[in-house]
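ESCALATION

Customer reports they have been waiting on this structure for their group meeting. Please prioritize. Original submission:
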Amino acid sequence: MNKKSLILDIVVLLLIFASAGVTFYRYIILKDYPITFKIGCNPEIEVCYISECNVEENTECAQDLVDRKSYYKLVEKSAGTIPGCDPEDPVCLEQTCPDQDSCKNIICNEDTVPEGESCSLLSDK
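Update from on-call: job pushed to the front of the queue and completed.
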């Protein structure tokens, strides 16, 4: 192995370790990645995602058609700004967005709606 090849190998290894270190610092230490979560939504005043329970797939669904629908909105926030509470707790998640500047609302439209769900439209009211 000649000297130029050895130097090139060392430089490549240093770049690989530096890249891994920066990635570790960003994702593990700073928690600089987005988290998307669901919070409650009022379809009377805002556009919401609509999830409808299917009686054939879930026996715990309500028999009443109105009670089968749940309304929610999607919110995206940086993981580093979310407090250390249970992410399944809706009260905890709503407290993580005290103002509109700290979170990014994902507006329901044909590009963002999950398959099998729909959007409520304010113009329909």
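Sent to customer with the following note: Helices lie at 3-29, 90-95.
Escalation resolved.
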